[in-house]
C-alpha cells in the first residue's frame, strides 16, 4: 500500500492513505500509515507491519456496484430471536467487512427505523453500517457524503415503497 491508496478499515469505513510516518512507541520505532476518513474527518495511524492482521482492504471497484445496488433495493430480511441475539448477529455481519453484508444491515435497520423508532443499540449499528457503507461509496462513486447518502436512501426507500415514510421521519427528527 502507498500514499494515495483508498482503503477500508474494518468497523470504521473507507479513507485515504495520506502519509507514512515513523513514530517511536515504547522505545521501538515503527512505520504507520496515516489514514484520513472522510466521514467525521477522523485521522488514524495504523502500523504498517500489522495491516494484514487489521484487515485493511482496497475500496471495492465499480464492478461490485450493481450487486450492491440490488442488495440495497431488495426486500428487508426479518430477524428472529431476542434483541440481544439480533444485536450480536448484526454486529457479526458488520465485522465480516463484506460490503454486501454491510449494505444489507444498513438497508434492514434503516427501513426498520423509518417504519418505527428502533432501540438505541440497533440505532448505533444502523449509523455504523451507514457510515461504513457511505464512506466507501464516496470513493467508488466519486461523490460527496451527502450525495451518496441521498442515493443510498432513494434505493432503500424504493425497494419497499416507503419513500414518504422516510421523508416524514426525517422531518420529525
Please characterize this protein's 3D structure.
- With 173 residues, the protein is α+β, with helices and mostly antiparallel strands.
- It has 2 domains: 6-58, Thrombin, subunit H, CATH 2.40.10.170; 62-172, CarD-like, C-terminal domain (Methane Monooxygenase Hydroxylase, Chain G, domain 1, Up-down Bundle), CATH 1.20.58.1290.
- The protein is built from 7 helices and 5 strands.
- The chain has helices spanning 51-54, 65-73, 83-95, 99-115, 120-141, 145-160, 163-172, and strands spanning 6-9, 13-25, 28-37, 42-47, 57-58.
- Strands 4-3-2-1-5 form a 5-stranded antiparallel β-sheet.
- A hairpin with a 2-residue loop joins strand 2 and strand 3.
- Helix 3 runs parallel beside helix 5 (120-141).
- The longest helix has 22 residues, at 120-141.
- The radius of gyration is 17 Å and the shape is globular.
- The termini are far apart.
Provide a quick synopsis of the model:
With 173 residues, this protein is α+β, with helices and mostly antiparallel strands.
Topology summary:
Layout: E1 6-9, E2 13-25, E3 28-37, E4 42-47, H1 51-54, E5 57-58, H2 65-73, H3 83-95, H4 99-115, H5 120-141, H6 145-160, H7 163-172
Antiparallel strand pairs: 1-2, 1-5, 2-3, 3-4
